[in-house]
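Q: What structure does this chain adopt?
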Amino acid sequence: MDKRTATGTMVKVAKVRRILVANRGEIAVRIIRACRERGIETVAVYSTADADSLPVRMADRAVCLGPPPSGKSYLVKESLVTAALRTECDALHPGVGFLSENADFARMVEKAGLIFIGPRSETIALLGDKVRARHEAKKAGLPVTPGTEEAVGNAEEAAAAVKALGFPLIIKAAAGGGGKGMRVVRSQTEIGENIRLAMREAEAHFADGRVFIERFIEKPRHVEVQLLSAGTGKTAILGERDCTVQRNHQKLIEESPSPAVTDAMRKAMMDGAIALFDRLNYRGAGTIEFLVEEGAFYFMEVNARVQVEHPVSEMVTGADVIQEQILACTEGRITLPPGPAPLRGHAIECRINALSPGRITRLEIPGGPGVRFDSFLYAGCNVPPYYDAMIAKLIVHATDRNAAIAKMDGALRELVIEGVKTNAAEQRAVINDRVFQSGDYSTTFIEDFERRRVT
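A:
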C-alpha cells in the first residue's frame, strides 16, 4: 500500500492499523463499527460537549479538540491533523459534513503523510466548483440543466446571460451547497438584487462570491446514485436513492429504488454516472445528485464523500459502503465488481431529528427482520444544542415498496425516545400519507403535506 509523505512522494507502508475518525455522532459510530470488523483501531475526537458520547466510549482512544462550537473543535483542521499524528494514526476518515468535502483539509492530511479516506484533494477541489463539475458531467455525456456555461460576476453579466434561458431561473453559488447562496428569480426586474444577495451570501459562507444561473425546475424529483471506486477507472454503482421528501433542502426520507425512475432512465443515469467517475479516476465513495422532471433527468452535483443516507443502498445491495470506502482509499481496491449492482427489494430511511436539546431519559429501539437503527443515542446520553439536529436514522428493508412502508410504520410505532422532542410522529404521518404512498410527488411534498394537515 502507498502512503504520501510530507514532500508528496509515495512510499510503501504496512496495512493500516489505526484511523482517526474526524467527526461525531452516528456517522462516527458507523465508522468505528466498520473499522472494528476490519481489525483497525480507531481514535475518536470530541468537543467538551461530546465528552461522554457513544463514539468516545467505543473508540480505542479519544482526543479532546476543544470547546463545543464547531469552529473551535470539529472544524479546526490543524487540531485534527495533530491529533492523528500524535496518536500514530495511518489514516483519517472525515465522515459527513464538517470538513469531509474541504479540499484544503484533504491536502493538509495528505501533506502530513496520512491517508485521507475520501477522494484525492484535487478531485474534491474540482467537484466543489459547481461550474467545473457541470463541464465534467457534460463531457461524460450526462445531461445538465440549461444554464450559464461560466460563473457570472455581476448583475449586468447575469441579465445578458439569461436572455436565452427564460424564467423562472435559479442563482446558485459556484462553490456552495445546502441551499446557501441560492435565489429563485421569476422576472428580469428581480435579477439585479438577487444576484447581489446570492453573491454576498456565497462569499460569507464559502469565501467565494461566484455564482451561476440555471433554469429553475419547479417541481422535480431529487434522485441520487451511489458509486464506489478504487481510483482505477472501474466504478461500481449501488442503484439510486430517492431523496425528494425534504424541507428547506434538508432531506427527511430516502428510499431505494426510486418510484420515479424507469428502467430506461436508470440505465442512462447509471451509464453516465459511471462514465463521469471513470473519467475522474474517482477514489472512494461518492454520490451524483440529479433532478428528475417529466421523464428527463439533469445532473446537479457530486457529493465527494459518503452520504448520510448510504444505509439505504446497503440494504438493497448487501454492500458495506464504509468498508468499501476504507478499502478503496487505503488498499486501492474494492470487493465489488464494476458496473451496476443488482438490487433486492425496497428500503426506506427516516431521519430522526431532535427538536430540542436535552438528556435521553428513555430509549426503546425497534427490531425484527429488515430493521436497522443507526444512532449515537443511549439512555442517559446528552443531546447538545450545538450541532446537526439528526440524532438517528431508522432504516427498513422489505420485498417491495408497500411492504417497506408498512414495516417503517411498525418500526416508528415501536421507537421510543424520551427526554428530547423529535420528529418521529411527523415521519409516521408522512409515510401514512396517501400522496407519499402513491409515489407521485415532488420536492414541494412537505409544504403540500403540511397544508393538507391544516385543512
